[in-house]
Amino acid sequence: MKIEKEPMDKETFFTEYKGVFIAIAAAAILGLIFLANFFFSSKRISLPPGEPSLTAGQSYEIEWSSSNVDRVGIVLFGGDQPQWIAYNHPAAAQKFVWQSDPYQPAGSQYRFAVFEYPWKKGNAIAYSPAMITILGQKYVSCDNYSVEQNWPYLPSKHAGILRAFVTQNTYSGDLGGLPGADEKCNQEAKKAGYEGNYIALLGTDDISARERVQKDGIFVEAGAVGQAVEGQACHRYLAENIQKLLDKANLSREAAQIQFGASFNQSFGNLWLGRMTPAIEKKCLSLGVDREGEMMFSNSYTCQDWTVGKRAISGVADANLTRCYDLQGKNLVAKYYGAAAIALGEQGGYALGAASCDTKRRLLCVEQ
User: Fold this and answer.
1) Residue 208, CB half-sphere, CA atoms under 13 Å: how many?
2) What residues does 53 pair with on adjacent strands?
3) What is the distance between the alpha carbons of residues 347 and 37, in angstroms, rounded to a whole number?
């Protein structure tokens, strides 16, 4: 026999299913709370679409939107290494005005990245949606750029111009002699796209750095900063002749920042030189003091004509080594390998100094 239920009235229905309604309502509220919490607590950074282009040496405004991020960092990808643009910048600013370097290489394969600062795994990060094109600067003439930078720039076809650059790589004192050093200069020049033949500005026991330069002229930085409309590149002026260029080894920090471009300035304080002029001594180069306070002397100023890449002399009887005198007149054995070099001075400028041959330094290469 089939028993039919009597229909419920509204009051009875809500009374019987009250718990179900409460559970559904609670679940809905919790879901809304979860979604709101997720939306307001998740960290997000995004960059606007587009294919931006900018000209080297000019300012460019980088924009982004973000949520729940306090500080950001910005880098430019493209080339050998990522290039920092901003550190620890307020994310709420939503923009940063970047003053690009006039030396910034032109290209179309760049991309900005804005990320939560400081960087760690899991931080929010966003990349520019499209590749960025950086255009090389163009000027009416190099004189125009000279006025803008308040420093002389010469066109690539200027009479008597000779290019100079500091190597990207560093080397120990074992350079393979002068031929090996010159080869390193020309290899790096070719890689950088610099025209001409180059020698390393180094001196040995037999010939000084000054004597090696047979073709004298006006020295400029080999790297061009822009392209003038008449088709010539503009080069930063360095010195009116080789002697003036060698004199740069004693520049103060303030003078160096004015007289050199940024990349040249950063590298110039870490150079091998050897004997700069014929008047410089060939032996007994002071390398400072050892742990016992005794003066350390090198057997030459040139890492034995750039053939030695170690620090101390071993396995040779004292009688066969050069004898040197310290400031108190004490007679000491020159039992180290070192060479004259340009170093950063205590005040941040350059100074002529000495380095042991196992350290690594750059070469100053000049066109000849």
Assistant:
1) 13
2) 133
3) 54
- Pull the structure tokens for residue 159: 């009479």
- Please tell me the distance from the alpha carbon of residue 250 to that of residue 266, in angstroms, as a whole number: 15
Amino acid at position 135, single letter:
L
Domain tally for the chain? 2
Residues 302 and 205 sit within 8 Å (Cβ to Cβ): yes
- Rounded to whole angstroms, how far apart are CA atoms 309 and 80? 28
Same domain, 184 and 87: no
AA identity, residue 160:
G
Residue with structure tokens 């750095």? 209
Which amino acid does the sequence have at 258?
Answer: I
Of the candidates 95, 172, 105, 174, the one whose C-alpha atom is nearest the C-alpha of residue 137 is 105
Q: What is the pTM assigned to this prediction?
A: 0.62
pLDDT (tens digit per residue) in 9-65:
555 554 555 555 565 665 666 566 555 544 445 889 999 987 778 888 788 999 999
With a CB cutoff of 8 Å and minimum separation 6, the contacts of 194 are 163, 165, 222, 223
Same domain, 132 and 166: no
**Does 183 map to a domain?**
yes
Q: What is the CATH number of the domain that holds 275?
A: 3.10.100.10
